[in-house]
Amino acid sequence: MPESSHLVDLVHARIDEFLTERHSILVSISPDLDPIATFSRRFLSGGKRFRALFCYWGWQAVHGHSGGFDPFAEDGDPETDPVGVVSVAAALECFHAAALVHDDIIDHSDTRRGAPAAHREFESLHREAGWDGDAAAFGEATAILVGDLLLGWADDLIQAGTSVLDDPARAIAARREFQRMRAEVTAGQYLDILEEQAWRSQPEAQLRPRAERVIVYKSARYSIEAPLRIGAALAGADPAQLAALSDFGLPLGIAYQLRDDLLGVFGDPATTGKPSGDDLREGKRTVLIAVARELLAPGQRRLLDELLGDPGLDAAQVEMLQETLRACGAVDEIERIISARVAEATAALEDAPLSRAARAELTALAETVARRER
Fold first, then answer.
1. In the predicted model, what is the mean pLDDT of residues 329-337?
2. Which residues form a coiled coil (predicted)?
3. 3-state secondary structure of 111
């Protein structure tokens, strides 16, 4: 629908305006901060903007259900943000960027979106300038600070978006949803790194449920459910509307992350912007891996456990592991789960107390996020 592309343009413009202001503040402190401001602008210029879109359609699902006019339709006024949803959607993109910067440090990833990850970018800056000390340590330290800065900027944008609301209760509700999302992502990130280190100490029967728990808290809620609920809260959603959006958003978020797990193993680097088999080298204990361990013979399972997490895996070893995951039926099982979760999500919209336009767009978005190639 035209509103989606128009909303993405408005979010791009809001981020650009915001970063221009913040760039000026940083370089007024010191010109040495220009690389941080420049990196932040480049990093926030890309991405699929799914979180911004789900925030907007969560808002429209409630606002449109009550017969409200959409100021962000293409014939609306792009110069104003009377309900704050553009700034809040931009805040979610800023928060996502912060999470990616920190995630790449944790995972020792070299690339993101086809370019050097933040810590590698600043490692290169150190090395090229010939500064004293350890270039890798400088890169990681700087990237941690960049991620923290982006988190703070996300809070600034949330404040800007909620401060224009006439109803303080809506502002409080939206901030509460944002704060819950922020806590859950941090918890999910810890559970993810815990699983990589502690999986051998867990009963076999618990490996798949624990991997599913990571999906829910690290990605599913924050990628789709939370943006929907934040947008809905801005529009004054009632409990039934919030529940309907959760019933849609959580299963779709699980499908979204399962697709991400497949792309992390089988994705085309030219499309994903990350090396093929990256999750295999990083040792991600995903649901895909848990399912494969259930299906593999003992000898194959031992080989998978031995190779998974080896950063030195060569192309032939990656290809062998990929074929193992396909041949045992794990990939087919993940595809089956994705389809079932998408069906569960879309079924939740059928009689939901949400606007017709939003239900149609969310149904279309469900297929987009679950079948994407990057």
1. 97
2. none
3. strand
Nearest to 284 by CA among 261, 250, 302: 261
Work out the pLDDT band at 114, boundaries 50, 70, 90: confident
Burial class from Cβ neighbours inside 10 Å (0-12, 13-18, 19+) for residue 24 reads: exposed
* Dist. CA 107–CA 88, nearest whole Å: 28
Q: What is the mean pLDDT of residues 333-346?
A: 97
**Structural domain total, the chain:** 1
Tell me the CATH number at 13: 1.10.600.10
Q: Please state, in angstroms and rounded to a whole number, the distance separating the CA atoms of residues 40 and 82.
A: 27
Domain that holds residue 360: 2-370
pLDDT tens digits, 131-157? 999 999 999 999 999 999 999 999 999
206-244 exposure pattern, b = at least 16 Cβ within 10 A, e = fewer: ebeebbbbbbbbbbbbbbbbbbbbbbbbbbbbeeebbeb
- Residues listed for the chain: 374
β strands within 104-163, DSSP E: 111-112, 115-116
Residue that has been written with the tokens 């408005």 in this structure: 10
Contact 278, 109 (CB under 8 A): yes
* pTM as predicted: 0.93
Amino acid 132: pLDDT: 97
- Distance of alpha carbon 80 from alpha carbon 126, whole angstroms: 42
